Amino acid sequence: MAEQLTGLADDRALLGRTSTAERVSDILRSRIAEGFFPPGTRLSEDGIGGALGVSRNTLREAFRLLTHERLLIHELNRGVFVRVLTVEDVEDIYRTRGLVECAVVRGLGEPPYDVTGLAEAVAEGQRASRASAWKELGTANIHFHRELVALAGSERTDELMRSVFAELRLAFHVVDDPRALHEPYLARNEEILRTLEAGERAKAERLLAAYLKDSLTRVVKVYERRVTGTP
User: Fold this and answer.
1) pLDDT tens per residue across span 198-226
2) How many CA atoms lie within 13 A of 29 on its CB side?
3) What is residue 32's predicted lDDT score, i.e. its pLDDT?
4) Class assignment of domain 2-82?
5) Please, are residues 163 and 67 in contact by the beta-carbon 8 Å criterion?
6) Which phi and psi angles does 41 have, rounded to 5°?
7) CATH classification for the domain delimited by 87-228, as one of 1.20.120.530, 3.20.20.80, 3.40.50.720, 1.10.3720.10
8) Where are the domains of the chain?
C-alpha cells in the first residue's frame, strides 16, 4: 500500500485548487484500471485522503461514485474494497463490449478513418511484448480498445466504456499467466488496425466480433479455474 499511496501523491497535482469527488474518482478509477489497486484491496481513507490532500467527505463521495460503477464494494464494519468480479460479471462485461465496440466500427461511415490512436496502442503493445512486460501488454490492449471506442467521437460512449474497461482490468488481475492471455491478441489488434486503414469497415467488425468471442472464452476459462476452483 505504501507504494500505491506514493503513486497517488504524484496524482495530487491533477486535482488543482478545486478538487472534487468527481476528480478524485477519476484518479482512483484510472489507478484501478492500470492495476495499482488489485481486486480485494482495502482502500484506506486516511492513506488515500492524505496522499491526495482531500477531505474525508470528498473521498467518501468518490468511493460512493465508484461503488455505483461497480468498481468498489463497501463491507459493513470492514471498509471499502476493490471489487472481486464473478464469472457472471465477466460475461456481462464482454456482452457490453460486443454491443458497443462492434456498433462503433459499424457506424464509422466512409473512410478514411483516423486510426492514429489505434496505431499508437499497437506500438505500445509491441514495445511491451519485446520487453516481456506482460501486464503492460494487457494495459496496451485495453488502450487499443479504448481508442477504438473513441472513433465514435462520443463523450457519453467514452464515459460508459471507461468504467467497463476498468472492470475488465479487475478480471485480468486474477489471471496467473498474463502472457498467455494477452500475447495472442497483439497480432489481432494489428490486423484490425490494418483493416481499418484499408477502409474495410465490415471486415474489421467481423474480426472484432470473433476477437471478443475468443477472448471471453479464454478469460472465463481462466477465471473459473482461479476464482471458483473449476478444473
Assistant:
1) 999 999 999 999 999 999 998 888 877 76
2) 23
3) 84
4) mainly alpha
5) no
6) -70, 130
7) 1.20.120.530
8) 2-82, 87-228
CA torsion angle 78 84 86 92 (round to 10): 120
What one-character-per-residue DSSP string does 63-125 give? HHHHHHTTSEEEETTTEEEEPPPPHHHHHHHHHHHHHHHHHHHHT--SSP---HHHHHHHHHH
Rounded Cα–Cα distance for residues 134 and 137 (Å): 5
**pTM, rounded to two decimals:** 0.82
Beta bridge partners of 74: 80
Question: Is the dihedral angle over the CA atoms 83, 85, 86, 92 positive or is it negative?
Answer: positive
Residues 148, 205 contacting (CB under 8 angstroms) = no
Query: Could you give the C-alpha distances from 136 to 34, 42, 170, 209, in angstroms and in order?
Result: 9, 23, 14, 24
DSSP state of 19: -
| Residue given cell 476493490 in the structure block | 82
74-78, 125-129, 216-220, range with greatest mean pLDDT: 125-129
